[in-house]
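pls ignore typos typing on phone
guanosine-5'-diphosphate + seq
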Amino acid sequence: MSARRHEQEDPDRYFTITGGRRDASLDLVALVVAEIGPLPGMSSEQVRILRLCRDTPVAVVELSAHLALPVSVVRILLRDMLADGRITVRHPVSAPEPEQLPDLETLKQVLVGLHNL
Amino acid sequence: MDSTTSDPPAAPPLAETPLRGTASDGLKIVVVGGFGVGKTTMVGSVSEIRPLSTEELMTRAGEGIDEAGAVPEKTTTTVAFDFGRITLNDRQVLYLFGAPGQQRFWFLWDQLFSGSLGAVVLVDTRRIEDSWYAIDRLEHHRMPFVVAVNRFAERGPSLAKVRAALDLDGHVPLIECDARLRESSKTVLIELVHHLTRLHDLPAGEDAR
Ligand SMILES: Nc1nc2c(ncn2[C@@H]2O[C@H](COP(=O)(O)OP(=O)(O)O)[C@@H](O)[C@H]2O)c(=O)[nH]1
Ligand SMILES: [Mg+2]
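k done
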């Protein structure tokens, strides 16, 4: 894949945006909802996030794709925005616990969704 | 709007295919396999959005970075993966991830597999050995999976031969597919759900994963 392609990139770019912190507590498919509109003084990344999830929820991983920023960088931004009440997050509720099977109701819903494709 | 006449952008604006406002529960399935095996093709054939690509940071050693620690400046690089989605109902949306199967990407898997319903291992019979590592890790993490043989050529080893070459447990479904076809990819995903459902019926203590 592209690990090689990016090797020349300057990691400082990410360091600047995140302040060097990491946070794995937001799942890739956690859904983000904007609670306020963009305000003067916000970083351009924050403004873009608020615009992207203004009308409908957007998954963490989709924000990452649309901002062209690594997932862990987006997580840091979101954590700050969450702390400031600028966004809310809808965490996955049907995900199985480690080494557990998904529950049967969830599997049924997935099956119905797939058949409807 | 002139959107019908202009070239499509690399990634479509979210406004084209937004999630429902009521969406609240994200689910995951991971498609894993070697380079060029058809992961992106499979994700794209069933996704309601054109597959999107993004990246995650990784250290050159292939390890994750601890949560509290600073990003090590000299060792950080990125790895790309792609995904699509299927809206299941007003509440639930299923994300499909295409993940590289090689050993050095294992750290990314941890994140992808955490909370995943299960996995699809895509196999190219010309490079069966590309799948060994992925299957080994899935078994180790007790993540249920099915194996789909993406047939690139008319001729190739029989499924029985593939099963033997992969040293695959008899319970694990092994099916053929053409990742370019929605119906075929759909069948693979449905087979995974059936497999997960069957695993529920096993007596406690017996584990076919
Ligand atoms: N003949 C054939 N070609 C396929 C099939 N699935 C994918 N391909 C082609 O194989 C190439 C690599 O597929 P891609 O999805 O990019 O592989 P990835 O690296 O695993 O994401 C593309 O040119 C696809 O069109 C298949 O089932 N049959
Ligand atoms: Mg790909």
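The first strand of chain A starts at residue 31 and ends at 34. Chain A has one domain: 2-115. more later
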